[in-house]
Amino acid sequence: VEPGRVRRSSGRPPGGLKMRIIMDNVIITPAxxxxxxxxxxxxxxxEAIGEGDITAAVSRWVEPVAGAAxxxxxxxxxxxxxxxHLAAAAAACTRLEVQPRLNVRTGQAGLTxxxxxxxxxxxxxxxxxxxxxxxxxxxxxxxxLTEYLDENAASIPEYDPRANILKxxxxxxxxxxxx
Length: 179
Fold this sequence. Notes:
Elements: H1 17-24, H2 30-37, H3 51-66, H4 68-75, H5 83-102, E1 105-107, E2 110-112, H6 124-151, E3 169-172, E4 175-178
Antiparallel strand pairs: 1-2, 3-4
Helix pairs in contact: 1-4, 2-5, 3-4, 3-5, 3-6, 5-6
């Protein structure tokens, strides 16, 4: 667009397909994220996970594996057999994204570590180990999603195995593999 000229709107939201997923995300709800990804016994308030958190995780972790078109198709109600696989990946990746924020609190005093009367904030080494564990878990769920997509590629025309990032590069056991 030339300086001083206004670009006409196409009627589509800026961001195209990804913006549509933000507005119409029905892959997984915040309550489902908590049920699937925080099943290790602790209480997490449903307000702690927002639609933006889910959208960011799907955009960063799930779309490079499944593709934006597949995510949009599932969000619109297509492929009900794929939805549990995509939801599990979205939940694990959402937890990976929000866990650092849950480890601290922001208030009038700024950024603080939560510590109540009967609990103290976890040591940094424990938080690092938790994040490492969450990354391994998210990676495993994304690999399972890839396996499902590959097995059912013929019935999911939106899926392009060549665009799947895990088909080109991944880390297993601490080793980076480039295909």
